[in-house]
Amino acid sequence: xxxxxxxxxxxxxxxxxxxxxxxxxxxxxxxxxxxxxxxxxxxxxxxxxxxxxxxxxxxxxxxxxxxxxxxxxxxxxxxxxxxxxxxxxxxxxxxxxxxxxxxxxxxxxxxxxxxxxxxxxxxxxxxxxxxxxxxxxxxxxxxxxxxxxxxxxxxxxxxxxxxxxxxxxxx
Length: 171
What we know:
- This protein is α+β, with helices and mostly antiparallel strands.
- The protein has one domain: Trna Endonuclease, Chain: A, domain 1 (3-Layer(aba) Sandwich), CATH 3.40.1350.10.
- It has 2 helices and 6 strands, in the order E-H-E-E-E-H-E-E.
- The protein is globular, with a radius of gyration of 16 Å.
- The N terminus is likely disordered.
């Protein structure tokens, strides 16, 4: 398994791809500032706010992951593709490969690194999603890969991004 690690910061508008061994920067611009853990909710209305913040964090992480992959030469086919088996965060082409990408974003590593959240159940779900997607996708004999992009917010609008290529295999 190969990994690609990048520390995030604002990106130039250039869309030129870099090799996998080069670092790539990513922006996580949004409000409110992230990188500071929210206090535990004490009322149901605060729980909804935490859920909204988590959804925003996840969306921003997926945006950063899609930019990162695009700038590394991936063609983004689908984002948030939904089927009976669930949702794939990103489906992309990397040369001949169709790549199913799970994106995990966290504000700290107190509960482990984001990629550690991709367990056997999640891998099985992604394999089912891939089968349903490929049944509709107009290609024959295409290689399939499952990647994980994990982001840890390190400061406002900055995150460490790690791209786990071929993070798990079908079967």
